[in-house]
Amino acid sequence: xxIIVNESLPTNEECAGSLKNVLDALYVINGKWxxxxxxxxxxxxxxxNELQNEITGISSKVLAKELKDLELNDFITRKVYPTSxxxxxxxxxxxxxxxxxxIGELSAWGEQHREKIKQSMRKQS
Length: 125
Fold this sequence. Notes:
By secondary structure, the protein is mainly α. It has a single domain (16-124), classed as Winged helix-like DNA-binding domain superfamily/Winged helix DNA-binding domain (Arc Repressor Mutant, subunit A), CATH 1.10.10.10. The protein contains 5 helices and 2 strands; from the N terminus they run H-H-H-H-E-E-H. It has helices at residues 12-29, 34-43, 48-54, 60-72, 100-124, and strands at 76-81, 87-92. The protein has a two-stranded antiparallel sheet with strand order 1-2. A hairpin with a 5-residue loop joins strand 1 and strand 2 (87-92). The protein is extended. The protein starts with 11 loop residues before the first helix and ends with a helix.
C-alpha cells in the first residue's frame, strides 16, 4: 500500500462529493452478479443460457433481473432475432467498457485480499 506523506486532508465538501459519487456508482452496479455479467459480455456477446452456464451459481430468475437492470442503465443491449424459436443475444455497450479500470482495480484488490487471508490462515495454523 502506498502511503502519501504531507498531503492535506480532503475538505468536508470533497468528502461529501466523493461519497455521493461512490454511492451513485454502487447503486448502479450493486449486487453480487452485475459486474460478472458485464465482464462476461465484454468478452463476447452471449445468449441467456450461455451466461447462466458461465456464471456459476446464478439462478435464471436473478440473471433475468440483472439483465433487465443492466439494459435499463445502458450497460448491455438485448437483440431479438425473429427465428423459430426466438433468439435473444445480449452484448456489452461501449458504456459498459468504461468500467474496465474499475474491474481491473477490483480484480487486483481481490487477489491481494485473497493472499492476505491465506497468510492469516497460515499464521493461525
